[in-house]
Structure formats: C-alpha cells, structure tokens
Amino acid sequence: MKRYGNLYPEIIEFENILLAARKAQKGKCFREQVLPFNYNLETELIKIQQELEGKTYQPGNYRTFYIQEPKIRMISAAPYRDRVVHHSLCNVILPILETTFIADSYANRLGFGTHRALERFVKFSRSSRYVLQCDIQKYFPSIDHEILKGLLRRKIKCPDTLWLIDTIIDNSNEQLAVIDHFQGDELLTPLQRRRGLPIGNLTSQFFANVYLNGFDHFIKEELQVKKYLRYVDDFALFSDDWGFLAEARLAIEEYLSKLRIKIHPVKSQLFATKHGTNFVGFRIFPDSIRVRTENLRRARRRVRGMQNDYIQGRISQEKVSQSIQSWFAHLEHGDTWQLRRKIFTSIVWARG
C-alpha cells in the first residue's frame, strides 16, 4: 500500500489556507466569529500559517449544544479559526484517502450524499428478498483514537502532517460516555482508552469514513457481498439468501470488535424487504417510497415554528421560501405529490 509523505508544505501554503477560509465561511459570512476574522483576513491567515509552520498551533475550546432528531445528539462547534485549519488539512489529505473508499459509501463525500444513497438503496431493496440493516451504536463517541491514528498512518507517513492530525484528534472534547468491553479487556480498559470525535467537525466526518473504510472493503471483498452500502454509521447488506446474511452478521460483529465498536442490538435486524425498509427519512416498499411518520412529524413542527417566526417578523420571506423549497426538493425523492400539495395549501404566511 502506497504511503504519502511531504504533504505538510502544501497544507501550510498561504494559498491553501486562503482557500480553506473561503470554504469554511461558505454560508456563514455574517456569523459572529466570521466577521472579525474576515475584517483582518490576511493577518489572521498569516498567524495560522506561522503557528502551523512552527507547530505552536493549539485548537480552541468547543461550543456544545444538543439536538434531538429523533435521538439526542451532542453537537460540537469548533472556533472558526480551527475550522479553517480543518479545511486546510482536508484540502490535501482528503483526495488521497478518497481514492480508497468504495463506490457505495455515501456520506460526507462530494457528489454522493443522501439522495444518491437513497436511489441505490431502493435499487438493491427492490431486487433482493432480504436485507440485513445495521446501525452502529453511539458511533462518533465510540471511535477509538489509537485505532484511528493507526488507520491514517497506513496512507500517510509525513511526520508533520501526522502531528497536525494527532493534535486535532487529541483535542477532541469529551463525548457522551460509552463503556463497552471487548475480548482481552481488563475491567478499566474502556476508561483508559481515549475515544470519541466531535460531531460537527469536517475532520470528524472525514475520519469517520476512514475508520470504517477497511470494514467496507471487508464486506465487499472478504464476505463477497455484491449489494452493500453505507451512510455514516448506517449500513445494509442485501441478498436472496437469508442464511448468507445471518452468517454475515456474525462476521460483521467479530470484525467491528477489532475497531472497538458494536452494532445496535435492537436497530440491527435481518428481515424481508417486502415489509418495507427505513432509510434516510423514507420508508421503501416494493411499489412505493413514503416519508417516515416521525420525520414528517418533525418537519411539520419546523414548518409551524418557521410560520410563527415569519408572522412575528423574525425571519424574511426569502428565508422561508428557501427552507420550504429545500424540504420539498427532498420530499420529491419519494411518492409524495399529494403530501406536498396538502402541506403547501395548509400553510398561511400572512403577517398581521
């Protein structure tokens, strides 16, 4: 396997850091942290460059908050200058590792994404009798730092680049507690190993794909599963052979234990596709694609909240229109014409 060196000069090049800043500010130009940074843009970028060059760079503190859709997730927002550094790193190392990803890994990849994953999932589901659908339990909080660093070192040998990668990983904030024991562990082993990546970082999303990349290849090449796809920590195997998928589950559990992660004992199931399968907010049947009830309920709550904000003058009509169009564009990937029509006609946007 080819390993790449001498990457750091490209990472700390001023033009690369400038490009990183442009990517980091996309859609966020008027945010509180971004405005003062951009006001002194050249000075700020030179300061980042000097800190990276002298290896004095130290990440700042995360701002954390929680969302529930449907389960509670802790989201961590890094300081803006750190996000510029994340983009600077990923600009260089992402293209190298991207070439090693399988074609059916869809999350956080340019040109892939939710809707392309849904299209592939529907194709696999409607051409197979059975599906083994799995969800990794507490994935981001469970990612083991030592294992992740080892996986990255299989492709990258540049010492300075590895220093920056380790600095970002080591400064991950504390995540939701996960106490899992694996074969060979002592009682305190789970507490002694550093784990968890902050959800919300560009680097975390990228590292999460790297962490399961070997697993993807194991499914495709060792287990010889022809119909397989993954979206972040959700993955599915399709086949007409129930026994084959049942045996595959045992092999999957054994492989994932080497990464010190586990599939969810309840959400991971083997069943007939004719009964319908849930994926990225939709429920896929042999003859239709419907919006999942809980997703529709949450979306309607958001629309009502946005409707109230508009009536009270807290958001503009342009913002409302963008949000509604975005949601409807997502719904168009299912059999939802009547649903969209019903929702649209029920919305009242008149201000008092």
Describe what this molecule looks like in 3D.
By secondary structure, the protein is an alpha+beta fold. The chain is built from 15 helices and nine strands. The chain has helices spanning 8-11, 14-24, 34-39, 41-53, 80-98, 114-126, 139-142, 145-153, 159-170, 189-192, 202-222, 242-258, 293-311, 317-331, 337-346, and strands at residues 63-68, 72-77, 130-135, 227-231, 234-239, 269-272, 277-279, 282-284, 289-291. Strands 4-5-3-6 form a four-stranded antiparallel beta sheet, sandwiched between helices. The longest helix is centred in the middle third of the chain and has 21 residues, at 202-222. The protein is globular, with a radius of gyration of 22 Å. The protein starts with 7 loop residues before the first helix and ends in a 6-residue tail after the last helix.
Short synopsis of the structure:
The protein has helices at 8-11, 14-24, 34-39, 41-53, 80-98, 114-126, 139-142, 145-153, 159-170, 189-192, 202-222, 242-258, 293-311, 317-331, 337-346, and strands spanning 63-68, 72-77, 130-135, 227-231, 234-239, 269-272, 277-279, 282-284, 289-291. It has 352 residues and is an alpha+beta fold. Strands 4-5-3-6 form a 4-stranded antiparallel beta sheet, with helices on both faces.
Relevant terms:
352 residues, four-stranded antiparallel beta sheet, 15 helices, 9 strands
Report how far the terminal alpha carbons are from each other: 66 Å
Kindly report the spatial arrangement of strands forming the biggest sheet: 4-5-3-6
Q: Provide the structure class.
A: alpha+beta
Largest sheet: 4 strands, antiparallel
Global shape: globular
Share of β-strand residues: 5-15%
**DSSP helix fraction:** 40-55%
Write down the Rg: 22 Å
The overall strand count is 9
Q: In sequence order, what are the helices and strands, one letter per element?
A: HHHHEEHHEHHHHHEEHEEEEHHH
Number of helices: 15
Which spans have pLDDT < 50 for at least 5 consecutive residues? none
